[in-house]
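User: Can you model how C2E sits in this protein?
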Amino acid sequence: MRVLYIEDNAVDADLTRRYFQQHHAMIDLDIVSCLSDGIAKLSRSHDYHLLLTDLKLPDGSGLEALSWVRQHDVPISVVILTGQGDEASSLAALKQGADEYVVKRNDYLSGLAASLFSALARFRSVPKYLSRHIRVLYVEHNPYDADLAVRFLATHAPYIELTLVQSASDVLSHLPLQSGEPAEFDLVLIDYRLPGKDGLELVRELRHTRQLTLPLVLITGQGSEDVIAQALHLGVDDFISKHDGYLYELAAFLEKVSRTAELRKEHRELLKLNAALRQVQAVFDSTSEGVLIADLKPRILTVNKAYTDITGYAESEVLGKNPGFIKSGRHHRTFYQTLWKSLSETGSWRGEIWNRRKTGEVFPQFLSLNTVVNEQGQATHYVGIFNDLSYQKESEQRLQTLTHYDPLTQLPNRLLLLSRIDHAIDQAEGQDRQVAVLYLDLDRFKNINDSYGHQEGDGCLKTLAQRLSHHLGKEDTLARMGGDEFIVVLEGIAHPERAAQKAESLLELMQKPITLSSGLEVVCAASIGISLYPQDATTATELIQYADTAMNQAKSLGRNTYRFFTEELTIQARCRLDLENSIRKALKENEFVLHYQPVIDAQSQRVVGAEALVRWHQNKENLLGPDKFIPVAEDSGLIIPLGRWVLRQACLQMRRWLDMGIRLDFMAVNLSGVQFNLGSVEQEVFDALQCSGLPPSFLDLELTESIIMDYGNKSLSIMNKLKEQGVSLSIDDFGTGYSSLAHLKNFPVDRLKIDKSFVQSLEEQTKDMAIVTTIINMAHNLGMKVVAEGVETLAQQELLKQLECEFFQGFYFSRALDDVAFVHWYEAHSSKYHHS
Ligand SMILES: Nc1nc2c(ncn2[C@@H]2O[C@@H]3COP(=O)(O)O[C@H]4[C@@H](O)[C@H](n5cnc6c(=O)[nH]c(N)nc65)O[C@@H]4COP(=O)(O)O[C@H]3[C@H]2O)c(=O)[nH]1
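Assistant: Here's the modeled complex, given as structure tokens:
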């Protein structure tokens, strides 16, 4: 037996060691001299069988060593050594769980080994099921019997904690007043003979009055069968009579009663637990929420009926699978990573998730995932509970439709319209564009309702709604404001006339008759009011309000017409639209003509080329310059057919002149950015050359700096393709844009035309002189020739000549002339310089 002995008295320690060496060699004694060393040894080594400790230690008490051992559940027996007259401490030691105490009397060493062995035996015999000591309230009036019992039990059954009282009233004061309240005792041991209330009366009081379920044991004298029968009847758990040696049976007896009571209690709790489990099972089975329990792998361990109903999988098909096997594929990997992170860090995750039923249908769930932990706080399982949100989503969708759409026409209603306008405003703001709100009210719709009934009226509105929405573009919004009022929102428009144009086309559309279900045909004309963001208002509500005002003005003007909120806009938009229509007509009726301005070689004064400039013969008297119609043609896209016409016309003219013997090197034609961006300019150039039979080298195409800047790589690729055809390219109006010559070096440009504004201020502005000098020098370095535009004076010509500018163009030589006048001028000029 290995014994740790804590002893501060070196003589005692030495004596004991020697004695054991001589007489009890099987006891292996390890001696330390203070409490802290003892505890240190106990915590390091686990192979001691017994702790023997002196009660009084220099740094504490043996009782502290005892309580450390018991608190830390160290499985060793403890024996306390006390001095003489220290019985109180000995008793305390036994109460605290010492297995034995030994008093240091003169001859104590001779019995010490036996005490140690019996202590060890007792420690080992303490029933393992007793998780704690049995706390017994013992009422005994006879002091002799009481003392005997106390001493006996302290020695032989120290795990029984006796609290001794002398009367029934003492017992009552130690116990709860009614059942359910916690008691400080596990058992009450009642001696029948008590002063005042006897044992039976006490039992009655406890069982019947207070209804306590605490185990009660009665001690009777011998031959008290009658008392015993009554006691059993009153509800004692057991009885024991004071026969000779009954004390030897007492401990086992108390253990038995206590254990039986404990078992009964456990049984009751198990029954309760069972009932609770049955309830949980019932909830698990009957809840409409799908539930699954998985282990930590995770693999599904169990699912409820709702799970199988919702997912369509039978329980046998899912057990053992990863719960994610019903993934929909709608979520990104990061979604699941976040879910698992939350589950492992916080123990739970809640949210909407899309999964897939066995049928393949993807459906939304609201899923709540929780980690189940054991008493030690370690995760053991996952529990997932989910609702099928499909129905909820559908009704949300239905509600959404009801809230945002007009039930009759299915068009957006006012609420949705407001948000669309807000959105359009946000977009327009960023792109420097406009938003138009067109308020459309049917003229005299009331007549249809009154004459043909509301059903026909509704049918009419539906047909109109369909017609209007087919007519509008995807990016436009059509909404119904209620009654016979509709709103059209045009997003991102560049000019008010686009809105006017749309209004005109809508009015035209309304002119088409609608066939009623009765077969009759009716026409629903309308009046339209237009407001614009940002000119008129900057909020959706104001825009609608102003469009409404404008619509009322249109109505008062005689209906079937449109009106802008502001008078000027109405006029301006009408003018531009009229102009657009006139250009279209002019194209058809060949009202455009080309004039040609000669280009002169600076050194020889020879006419080397001509620039074709378009004019519009609106009527006999009126010849409109391009600045009056090119911008509108560009905005409306009409520049594409117009530009095509110019190209062909210029090529045909050049071909004719060459055939007539007019020796020009090139015919220059202006290209617009719109042709570059939207048209197929390479094809058109090709076609013009083909149909005219003009060799490509005689065609020069003028592009402005801004075309090159605006369309970057696209223009480079188009320019390369044009060059491949064999035409030459010029940069027009050079100096007015922001491009640098260095940037231009990447483009295949043959000629550079200095803008007339520089040429014309050459004489007065030394700064412009410097700029022109630089442009010419750099252009030469890049292998380009330079044309000076707008040369009006001899002085300008002289200066430019000095700067080695190659070509001139300007009123000093000639304005742009029609084909006949150009030929006259050419001949006159050529004969003047003898170069023909
Ligand atoms: N003050 C002054 N002006 C002079 C002088 N010499 C020429 N001009 C004018 O300068 C303009 C030169 O054409 P641009 O810079 O290409 O500028 C052209 C060109 O950008 C555009 N344009 C003309 N015809 C066409 C065409 O067929 N297609 C395209 N896309 N644009 C054209 O219209 C612009 C204006 O053309 P025009 O009115 O014909 O005006 C012409 C011409 O009459 C001068 O000494 N003094």
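A couple of observations from the model: The radius of gyration is 56 Å. The chain is about 45% helix and 20% strand.
User: Helpful, thanks.
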